[in-house]
Write a structure and sequence with these properties.
- The protein has 156 residues and is α+β, with helices and mostly antiparallel strands.
- It is built from 4 helices and 6 strands; from the N terminus they run αββββαββαα.
- The strands form 3 sheets. The chain has a two-stranded antiparallel sheet. It has a two-stranded antiparallel sheet with strand order 3-4. A two-stranded antiparallel ribbon has the order 5-6.
Length: 156
């Protein structure tokens, strides 16, 4: 009888080594990039993308220049556009690098209300219906975005 396969995350842990802020892959290399059979780049496992074929990853070369690095924070996640079935939504994916204490629904509400606040469709007083932590996050995001917009207008 064949021995049971180890979980992929455990295999990645065994085949990689931490060097500073890099996680260096010591397994198979294919075309100069880390490679794990039936998965591709092992960083996909660390980013929980194995069930999401409509997402790609690219190493952010401004953060990391080591081609063997599989540190999830050194990768950008790119959602592919579905050209054949544009009306189908992409599979939902939650970034494991984001350690937010908010649920998916709360994050959607925050994003929606930040847009409404920036468009002056609601006021700060209208946010009183939300719990304090959500209201504070909406205001923090809106003011940080306003600051970026104001800075862009002032600085050419």
């Amino acid at each position: 009888m064949a021995r049971p396969r180890k979980p992929l995350a455990e295999r990645i842990g065994r085949l990689s080594q931490r060097e500073g802020d890099h996680l260096i892959w010591q397994g198979q290399i294919k075309d100069g990039k880390p490679y794990l059979d039936r998965v591709g780049n092992p960083a996909r496992i660390l980013l929980n993308l194995t069930e999401h074929p409509d997402y790609q990853i690219r190493r952010d070369e401004s953060l990391c220049d080591d081609p063997r690095c599989i540190e999830p924070h050194h990768y950008r996640v790119i959602r592919e556009r579905k050209f054949k079935y544009d009306d189908q939504p992409s599979t939902p994916w939650r970034d494991p690098r984001n350690t937010s204490s908010f649920s998916d629904r709360e994050l959607e509400e925050i994003e929606e209300n930040v847009e409404l606040l920036l468009a002056n469709e609601i006021t700060e007083e209208d946010l009183g219906i939300f719990p304090d932590n959500i209201r504070d996050e909406i205001l923090r995001c809106a003011f940080s975005i306003r600051g970026v917009i104001a800075c862009r207008r002032r600085c050419p």
